[in-house]
Amino acid sequence: MIGTGILKGMAVTARNFIGSYFEKDRLITVQYPEERNPLPENYRNFPFLIYDGNDAEAGLRCVACKICEKECPPQCIYITKSEDKKPDYMGKPQFYPAVFDIDISVCMSCQICVEVCPFEAIKMDKVFELSRRERFDALLTRKNELAKSNSYYHQIHPTEAAEVDAKLTEAAAKKKPAAGAGSTQPAGASPSQTGG
Ligand code: SF4
Ligand code: SF4
User: Are residues 62 and 117 in the same domain?
Assistant: First the structure.
């Protein structure tokens, strides 16, 4: 019959409207910003850089290989490689980014930078309240703002972060066979216990 679908839709709306006075589960809106719905674990918006331990500069996993910069479709990543090297999570000397900027006014949250990074150094954040009054430089996010601890990564994406830690631990163990039998744990493998 013509109009049956509309009537059914209205019945659902009426049931939820009246039911919302009696059952909190039927309330599908919240009084933002005082109230917030929890974000799903796989929610993502803009990238951030991971560091191990408590020192954002020393523990930064990024080695400034620039793969993400090349692959970013809207070209919103800008990296300058360091002149010197610092030890990575396995103690191997590596370059690091002297400059690492992401223009989040351009970023389209595609996650390609995360997928191409061979060092598990860049991941997607959940922070979404990033609006600014200014149109340009205010949304250019610098290395010191992008750097967040592995503990933070564990808080926002626990399942994914645990998988990454396991992968790094395994990689470190393969590279340090017999000699490091008692200390194969890479600094980056479980920094959730040490990071800030
Ligand atoms: S999420 Fe996509 S658009 Fe944003 S920085 Fe990464 S590759 Fe570029
Ligand atoms: S974030 Fe990853 S892909 Fe990008 S420069 Fe650093 S190490 Fe390379």
Answer: yes
